[in-house]
Write a structure and sequence with these properties.
alpha+beta, five-stranded antiparallel beta sheet, three-stranded parallel beta sheet, 11 strands, about 30% helix, globular, binds flavin-adenine dinucleotide, binds iron/sulfur cluster
Amino acid sequence: MIDFDYVKARDVSDAISHIARDSAARFIAGGTNLIDLMKENVARPTRLIDITGLPLTEIEETKPGGLLIGALVPNSDLAYGERIMKRYPLLSSAILAGASAQLRNMASTGGNLLQRTRCLYFYDTTTPCNKRKPGSGCGALHGFNRMNAILGWSETCIAVHPSDMCVALAALEATVHVTGPKGDRAIPFADFHRLPGHTPDIDTNLASDEIIAAIELPPEEFSRNYSYLKIRDRLSYAFALVSVAVGLKVEAGVIKQARIALGGVAHKPWRVLDGEKVLAGQQPSRKAFSEAADIILQGAAGFAHNSFKIELARRAIVRALEQAAAGTPQSQSVKVIV
Ligand SMILES: Cc1cc2nc3c(=O)[nH]c(=O)nc-3n(C[C@H](O)[C@H](O)[C@H](O)COP(=O)(O)OP(=O)(O)OC[C@H]3O[C@@H](n4cnc5c(N)ncnc54)[C@H](O)[C@@H]3O)c2cc1C
Ligand code: SF4
Protein backbone atom coordinates (compact mmCIF):
# COMPACT_ATOMS: atom_id res chain seq x y z
CA MET A 1 0.00 0.00 0.00
CA ILE A 2 1.31 3.45 -0.91
CA ASP A 3 0.97 6.04 1.82
CA PHE A 4 0.32 9.47 0.28
CA ASP A 5 -1.32 12.78 1.15
CA TYR A 6 -4.07 14.36 -0.90
CA VAL A 7 -4.79 18.06 -1.29
CA LYS A 8 -7.16 19.91 -3.61
CA ALA A 9 -5.58 23.05 -5.10
CA ARG A 10 -7.66 26.23 -4.64
CA ASP A 11 -6.15 28.06 -7.60
CA VAL A 12 -3.11 27.91 -9.90
CA SER A 13 -0.75 29.66 -7.46
CA ASP A 14 -1.90 27.34 -4.65
CA ALA A 15 -1.14 24.35 -6.92
CA ILE A 16 2.33 25.70 -7.69
CA SER A 17 3.14 26.44 -4.06
CA HIS A 18 2.22 22.84 -3.12
CA ILE A 19 4.37 21.30 -5.86
CA ALA A 20 7.29 23.68 -5.20
CA ARG A 21 7.39 22.53 -1.56
CA ASP A 22 7.64 18.81 -2.35
CA SER A 23 9.48 17.46 -5.41
CA ALA A 24 7.96 13.99 -4.83
CA ALA A 25 4.39 15.36 -5.06
CA ARG A 26 2.42 15.02 -8.32
CA PHE A 27 -0.52 16.83 -9.84
CA ILE A 28 -3.50 14.67 -10.61
CA ALA A 29 -5.97 15.58 -13.38
CA GLY A 30 -7.99 12.75 -15.00
CA GLY A 31 -5.80 10.19 -13.22
CA THR A 32 -6.04 7.74 -16.16
CA ASN A 33 -2.25 7.32 -16.30
CA LEU A 34 -1.02 8.34 -12.86
CA ILE A 35 -3.37 6.02 -10.94
CA ASP A 36 -2.31 3.06 -13.11
CA LEU A 37 1.34 3.88 -12.43
CA MET A 38 0.65 4.03 -8.71
CA LYS A 39 -1.23 0.72 -8.78
CA GLU A 40 1.73 -0.90 -10.56
CA ASN A 41 4.14 0.63 -8.02
CA VAL A 42 5.95 2.51 -10.81
CA ALA A 43 5.08 5.94 -9.35
CA ARG A 44 5.10 6.56 -5.60
CA PRO A 45 4.16 10.21 -5.08
CA THR A 46 4.22 11.47 -1.50
CA ARG A 47 1.27 13.75 -2.19
CA LEU A 48 -1.38 14.10 -4.88
CA ILE A 49 -2.30 17.68 -5.70
CA ASP A 50 -5.76 17.55 -7.25
CA ILE A 51 -5.97 20.23 -9.95
CA THR A 52 -9.42 19.34 -11.29
CA GLY A 53 -11.02 22.42 -9.67
CA LEU A 54 -8.73 24.92 -11.42
CA PRO A 55 -10.21 27.29 -14.01
CA LEU A 56 -8.31 25.76 -16.96
CA THR A 57 -11.32 24.31 -18.76
CA GLU A 58 -12.03 26.82 -21.53
CA ILE A 59 -11.16 26.98 -25.23
CA GLU A 60 -10.62 30.63 -26.20
CA GLU A 61 -9.84 32.54 -29.39
CA THR A 62 -6.37 34.12 -29.54
CA LYS A 63 -5.53 37.51 -31.07
CA PRO A 64 -3.48 36.02 -33.94
CA GLY A 65 -6.50 33.86 -34.90
CA GLY A 66 -5.72 30.56 -33.22
CA LEU A 67 -7.15 28.85 -30.15
CA LEU A 68 -5.99 28.58 -26.54
CA ILE A 69 -6.98 25.26 -24.95
CA GLY A 70 -7.05 25.09 -21.15
CA ALA A 71 -4.99 22.22 -19.69
CA LEU A 72 -8.06 20.69 -18.06
CA VAL A 73 -10.23 20.51 -21.16
CA PRO A 74 -11.15 16.81 -21.36
CA ASN A 75 -9.92 14.96 -24.46
CA SER A 76 -13.55 14.25 -25.50
CA ASP A 77 -14.61 17.89 -25.28
CA LEU A 78 -11.57 18.89 -27.28
CA ALA A 79 -12.07 16.28 -30.00
CA TYR A 80 -15.79 17.09 -30.37
CA GLY A 81 -15.46 20.84 -29.84
CA GLU A 82 -17.21 22.64 -32.72
CA ARG A 83 -14.20 24.83 -33.51
CA ILE A 84 -11.70 21.97 -33.27
CA MET A 85 -13.71 19.71 -35.57
CA LYS A 86 -14.19 22.45 -38.12
CA ARG A 87 -10.88 24.26 -37.97
CA TYR A 88 -8.39 21.67 -36.66
CA PRO A 89 -9.81 18.30 -37.79
CA LEU A 90 -6.29 16.83 -37.69
CA LEU A 91 -6.26 17.29 -33.91
CA SER A 92 -9.78 15.96 -33.52
CA SER A 93 -8.97 12.84 -35.58
CA ALA A 94 -5.78 12.13 -33.64
CA ILE A 95 -7.53 12.33 -30.26
CA LEU A 96 -10.37 10.07 -31.43
CA ALA A 97 -7.82 7.50 -32.64
CA GLY A 98 -6.65 7.08 -29.04
CA ALA A 99 -7.86 5.23 -25.96
CA SER A 100 -11.61 4.70 -25.51
CA ALA A 101 -14.62 7.00 -25.10
CA GLN A 102 -14.61 6.52 -21.31
CA LEU A 103 -10.89 7.29 -21.02
CA ARG A 104 -11.19 10.34 -23.26
CA ASN A 105 -13.97 11.64 -21.03
CA MET A 106 -11.61 11.56 -18.05
CA ALA A 107 -8.26 12.39 -19.69
CA SER A 108 -7.15 16.03 -19.70
CA THR A 109 -5.24 17.96 -22.35
CA GLY A 110 -2.29 18.61 -20.00
CA GLY A 111 -2.22 15.03 -18.72
CA ASN A 112 -2.13 13.68 -22.27
CA LEU A 113 1.17 15.49 -22.91
CA LEU A 114 2.67 14.01 -19.73
CA GLN A 115 1.46 10.43 -20.03
CA ARG A 116 4.38 8.07 -19.67
CA THR A 117 5.69 5.45 -22.08
CA ARG A 118 3.92 2.12 -22.51
CA CYS A 119 7.22 0.19 -22.73
CA LEU A 120 6.46 -3.20 -21.13
CA TYR A 121 9.58 -3.11 -18.94
CA PHE A 122 8.78 0.34 -17.55
CA TYR A 123 5.61 -1.15 -16.03
CA ASP A 124 7.27 -4.38 -14.85
CA THR A 125 9.11 -3.54 -11.63
CA THR A 126 10.88 -6.92 -11.62
CA THR A 127 12.94 -5.90 -14.70
CA PRO A 128 15.67 -3.28 -15.23
CA CYS A 129 14.52 0.08 -16.62
CA ASN A 130 16.62 3.26 -16.74
CA LYS A 131 13.50 5.39 -17.05
CA ARG A 132 11.92 3.97 -13.90
CA LYS A 133 15.18 3.42 -11.99
CA PRO A 134 18.15 5.32 -13.50
CA GLY A 135 21.27 3.19 -13.85
CA SER A 136 19.45 -0.15 -13.61
CA GLY A 137 19.70 -0.96 -17.35
CA CYS A 138 17.18 -1.31 -20.18
CA GLY A 139 15.08 -4.46 -20.32
CA ALA A 140 13.75 -3.62 -23.78
CA LEU A 141 17.12 -3.30 -25.53
CA HIS A 142 17.52 -7.11 -25.75
CA GLY A 143 13.96 -7.99 -24.77
CA PHE A 144 10.59 -7.92 -26.50
CA ASN A 145 10.85 -4.53 -28.19
CA ARG A 146 8.05 -4.68 -30.78
CA MET A 147 6.52 -1.38 -29.58
CA ASN A 148 9.84 0.44 -29.13
CA ALA A 149 11.70 3.16 -31.01
CA ILE A 150 13.43 3.18 -34.39
CA LEU A 151 14.52 6.83 -34.30
CA GLY A 152 16.22 9.08 -31.76
CA TRP A 153 16.84 6.31 -29.23
CA SER A 154 19.92 5.94 -27.06
CA GLU A 155 21.66 2.92 -25.55
CA THR A 156 20.00 3.80 -22.24
CA CYS A 157 16.39 3.87 -23.49
CA ILE A 158 14.49 2.89 -26.64
CA ALA A 159 11.01 3.84 -25.42
CA VAL A 160 8.43 5.75 -27.48
CA HIS A 161 5.99 8.46 -26.46
CA PRO A 162 2.51 6.91 -26.64
CA SER A 163 0.26 9.92 -27.29
CA ASP A 164 -1.79 10.38 -30.46
CA MET A 165 -2.86 13.93 -29.61
CA CYS A 166 0.77 15.04 -29.31
CA VAL A 167 1.58 13.88 -32.84
CA ALA A 168 -1.09 16.22 -34.23
CA LEU A 169 0.04 19.05 -31.91
CA ALA A 170 3.60 18.62 -33.22
CA ALA A 171 2.41 18.86 -36.83
CA LEU A 172 0.30 21.92 -36.00
CA GLU A 173 3.28 23.57 -34.23
CA ALA A 174 1.38 24.21 -31.02
CA THR A 175 2.85 26.05 -28.04
CA VAL A 176 2.71 24.82 -24.44
CA HIS A 177 2.02 27.57 -21.88
CA VAL A 178 3.33 26.76 -18.42
CA THR A 179 3.39 28.55 -15.07
CA GLY A 180 5.77 28.13 -12.14
CA PRO A 181 7.26 29.98 -9.16
CA LYS A 182 9.38 32.08 -11.58
CA GLY A 183 6.35 33.08 -13.69
CA ASP A 184 4.91 32.06 -17.06
CA ARG A 185 6.76 30.74 -20.08
CA ALA A 186 5.86 29.39 -23.50
CA ILE A 187 7.51 26.24 -24.83
CA PRO A 188 7.33 25.47 -28.58
CA PHE A 189 5.88 21.97 -28.94
CA ALA A 190 9.06 20.66 -30.62
CA ASP A 191 11.01 21.55 -27.46
CA PHE A 192 8.53 20.18 -24.93
CA HIS A 193 9.33 16.44 -25.08
CA ARG A 194 12.93 15.22 -24.91
CA LEU A 195 14.95 12.45 -26.52
CA PRO A 196 16.24 9.93 -23.96
CA GLY A 197 20.01 10.58 -24.21
CA HIS A 198 21.61 9.74 -20.87
CA THR A 199 18.59 10.89 -18.84
CA PRO A 200 15.61 8.81 -20.01
CA ASP A 201 13.94 9.35 -16.63
CA ILE A 202 13.25 12.97 -17.72
CA ASP A 203 10.52 12.95 -20.37
CA THR A 204 9.98 16.67 -20.91
CA ASN A 205 11.45 20.14 -20.39
CA LEU A 206 8.69 21.06 -17.93
CA ALA A 207 10.35 21.91 -14.58
CA SER A 208 9.23 19.82 -11.61
CA ASP A 209 7.57 22.87 -10.01
CA GLU A 210 5.69 24.01 -13.13
CA ILE A 211 2.12 23.34 -14.23
CA ILE A 212 0.81 23.20 -17.80
CA ALA A 213 -1.80 25.95 -18.06
CA ALA A 214 -2.79 25.80 -21.73
CA ILE A 215 -1.91 24.71 -25.26
CA GLU A 216 -2.02 27.30 -28.03
CA LEU A 217 -2.89 26.39 -31.60
CA PRO A 218 -1.55 28.80 -34.24
CA PRO A 219 -3.89 30.21 -36.93
CA GLU A 220 -2.73 27.72 -39.62
CA GLU A 221 -5.37 24.98 -39.40
CA PHE A 222 -4.70 22.60 -42.34
CA SER A 223 -8.44 21.97 -42.37
CA ARG A 224 -8.71 21.02 -46.06
CA ASN A 225 -5.78 18.72 -46.60
CA TYR A 226 -4.91 16.61 -43.57
CA SER A 227 -4.81 13.02 -42.37
CA TYR A 228 -4.08 11.15 -39.16
CA LEU A 229 -3.15 7.58 -39.96
CA LYS A 230 -2.65 5.23 -37.03
CA ILE A 231 -1.36 1.69 -37.55
CA ARG A 232 -1.85 -0.60 -34.57
CA ASP A 233 -2.19 -4.26 -33.63
CA ARG A 234 -5.94 -3.91 -32.93
CA LEU A 235 -8.35 -1.63 -34.71
CA SER A 236 -9.27 0.23 -31.53
CA TYR A 237 -8.08 0.67 -27.97
CA ALA A 238 -4.43 0.09 -28.81
CA PHE A 239 -1.36 2.29 -28.92
CA ALA A 240 0.27 3.11 -32.26
CA LEU A 241 2.93 0.95 -33.83
CA VAL A 242 3.35 3.87 -36.20
CA SER A 243 1.18 6.93 -36.66
CA VAL A 244 1.44 9.84 -39.08
CA ALA A 245 -0.08 13.31 -38.80
CA VAL A 246 -0.04 15.26 -42.05
CA GLY A 247 -1.15 18.81 -42.85
CA LEU A 248 -0.74 20.20 -46.36
CA LYS A 249 -1.41 23.56 -47.97
CA VAL A 250 -2.20 22.91 -51.62
CA GLU A 251 -2.85 25.75 -54.08
CA ALA A 252 -3.66 25.22 -57.75
CA GLY A 253 -2.46 21.64 -57.54
CA VAL A 254 0.91 22.55 -56.00
CA ILE A 255 2.04 21.90 -52.41
CA LYS A 256 2.90 25.20 -50.76
CA GLN A 257 3.59 23.84 -47.29
CA ALA A 258 3.80 20.40 -45.67
CA ARG A 259 3.83 19.27 -42.07
CA ILE A 260 4.54 15.64 -41.20
CA ALA A 261 4.88 14.23 -37.68
CA LEU A 262 5.31 10.59 -36.68
CA GLY A 263 4.14 8.81 -33.53
CA GLY A 264 5.11 5.40 -32.16
CA VAL A 265 8.65 5.65 -33.49
CA ALA A 266 10.59 7.82 -31.01
CA HIS A 267 10.72 9.21 -27.47
CA LYS A 268 8.88 12.29 -28.78
CA PRO A 269 6.70 13.09 -31.80
CA TRP A 270 9.16 12.94 -34.72
CA ARG A 271 9.55 15.68 -37.29
CA VAL A 272 12.27 16.19 -39.89
CA LEU A 273 11.95 19.63 -41.46
CA ASP A 274 13.97 18.70 -44.57
CA GLY A 275 11.42 15.97 -45.31
CA GLU A 276 8.67 18.61 -45.27
CA LYS A 277 10.60 21.25 -47.25
CA VAL A 278 11.32 18.84 -50.09
CA LEU A 279 7.59 18.77 -50.88
CA ALA A 280 7.18 22.55 -51.21
CA GLY A 281 6.61 23.57 -54.84
CA GLN A 282 5.93 19.99 -55.97
CA GLN A 283 2.75 18.47 -57.32
CA PRO A 284 1.41 15.66 -55.13
CA SER A 285 2.85 12.36 -56.37
CA ARG A 286 3.91 9.03 -54.94
CA LYS A 287 7.47 9.75 -56.08
CA ALA A 288 7.63 13.04 -54.17
CA PHE A 289 6.01 11.50 -51.08
CA SER A 290 8.46 8.56 -51.13
CA GLU A 291 11.35 11.02 -51.31
CA ALA A 292 10.00 12.84 -48.25
CA ALA A 293 9.57 9.54 -46.38
CA ASP A 294 13.17 8.52 -47.16
CA ILE A 295 14.46 11.80 -45.73
CA ILE A 296 12.31 11.54 -42.61
CA LEU A 297 13.46 7.99 -41.92
CA GLN A 298 17.16 8.60 -42.49
CA GLY A 299 19.12 6.96 -39.67
CA ALA A 300 16.21 4.76 -38.57
CA ALA A 301 17.42 1.58 -36.87
CA GLY A 302 15.36 -1.12 -35.24
CA PHE A 303 15.91 -4.02 -32.85
CA ALA A 304 15.16 -7.75 -32.81
CA HIS A 305 11.37 -7.35 -32.84
CA ASN A 306 10.63 -3.95 -34.37
CA SER A 307 12.72 -3.48 -37.52
CA PHE A 308 9.51 -3.96 -39.52
CA LYS A 309 8.50 -0.49 -38.31
CA ILE A 310 10.95 1.17 -40.70
CA GLU A 311 9.19 -0.03 -43.85
CA LEU A 312 5.81 0.33 -42.12
CA ALA A 313 6.58 3.98 -41.33
CA ARG A 314 7.76 4.62 -44.90
CA ARG A 315 4.52 3.27 -46.35
CA ALA A 316 2.39 5.02 -43.72
CA ILE A 317 3.99 8.39 -44.51
CA VAL A 318 3.30 7.95 -48.24
CA ARG A 319 -0.28 6.84 -47.61
CA ALA A 320 -1.05 9.65 -45.18
CA LEU A 321 0.36 12.22 -47.62
CA GLU A 322 -1.75 10.77 -50.44
CA GLN A 323 -4.87 10.90 -48.28
CA ALA A 324 -4.15 14.49 -47.23
CA ALA A 325 -3.42 15.64 -50.78
CA ALA A 326 -6.63 14.05 -52.07
CA GLY A 327 -8.68 15.57 -49.24
CA THR A 328 -9.71 12.07 -48.14
CA PRO A 329 -8.36 11.76 -44.59
CA GLN A 330 -7.95 8.35 -42.97
CA SER A 331 -10.42 9.13 -40.20
CA GLN A 332 -12.74 11.98 -39.50
CA SER A 333 -14.49 13.01 -36.34
CA VAL A 334 -18.22 12.63 -36.81
CA LYS A 335 -20.56 14.51 -34.53
CA VAL A 336 -23.83 12.72 -34.00
CA ILE A 337 -26.64 15.25 -33.73
CA VAL A 338 -29.86 13.97 -32.16
C1 LIG B 1 -6.13 1.58 -21.38
C2 LIG B 1 -5.62 2.88 -21.90
C3 LIG B 1 -5.49 3.07 -23.26
C4 LIG B 1 -5.01 4.29 -23.75
N1 LIG B 1 -4.86 4.46 -25.09
C5 LIG B 1 -4.34 5.61 -25.57
C6 LIG B 1 -4.11 5.81 -26.96
O1 LIG B 1 -4.40 4.94 -27.78
N2 LIG B 1 -3.59 7.01 -27.37
C7 LIG B 1 -3.29 8.00 -26.48
O2 LIG B 1 -2.84 9.05 -26.90
N3 LIG B 1 -3.48 7.83 -25.17
C8 LIG B 1 -3.98 6.68 -24.70
N4 LIG B 1 -4.15 6.50 -23.36
C9 LIG B 1 -3.58 7.48 -22.45
C10 LIG B 1 -4.50 8.58 -22.04
O3 LIG B 1 -4.72 9.42 -23.12
C11 LIG B 1 -3.76 9.32 -20.93
O4 LIG B 1 -3.73 8.45 -19.81
C12 LIG B 1 -4.43 10.62 -20.56
O5 LIG B 1 -4.37 11.52 -21.65
C13 LIG B 1 -3.74 11.27 -19.38
O6 LIG B 1 -4.50 12.38 -18.94
P1 LIG B 1 -4.99 12.49 -17.43
O7 LIG B 1 -5.63 13.81 -17.29
O8 LIG B 1 -5.78 11.31 -17.02
O9 LIG B 1 -3.57 12.48 -16.71
P2 LIG B 1 -3.18 12.05 -15.22
O10 LIG B 1 -3.10 10.57 -15.13
O11 LIG B 1 -4.01 12.77 -14.22
O12 LIG B 1 -1.72 12.67 -15.16
C14 LIG B 1 -0.69 12.22 -16.01
C15 LIG B 1 0.59 12.99 -15.64
O13 LIG B 1 0.45 14.36 -15.98
C16 LIG B 1 0.64 15.19 -14.84
N5 LIG B 1 -0.27 16.33 -15.05
C17 LIG B 1 -1.58 16.25 -15.38
N6 LIG B 1 -2.07 17.48 -15.65
C18 LIG B 1 -1.03 18.33 -15.51
C19 LIG B 1 -0.87 19.75 -15.68
N7 LIG B 1 -1.88 20.53 -16.08
N8 LIG B 1 0.35 20.29 -15.44
C20 LIG B 1 1.39 19.52 -15.05
N9 LIG B 1 1.31 18.20 -14.86
C21 LIG B 1 0.12 17.61 -15.11
C22 LIG B 1 0.38 14.33 -13.64
O14 LIG B 1 1.12 14.76 -12.51
C23 LIG B 1 0.88 12.98 -14.14
O15 LIG B 1 2.28 12.89 -13.96
C24 LIG B 1 -4.67 5.31 -22.84
C25 LIG B 1 -4.81 5.13 -21.46
C26 LIG B 1 -5.28 3.93 -20.98
C27 LIG B 1 -5.42 3.74 -19.51
S1 SF4 C 1 13.19 1.32 -23.28
FE1 SF4 C 1 13.27 2.89 -21.71
S2 SF4 C 1 11.34 2.58 -20.64
FE2 SF4 C 1 11.75 0.67 -21.74
S3 SF4 C 1 12.98 -0.64 -20.39
FE3 SF4 C 1 14.41 0.53 -21.57
S4 SF4 C 1 14.83 2.28 -20.25
FE4 SF4 C 1 12.92 1.41 -19.53
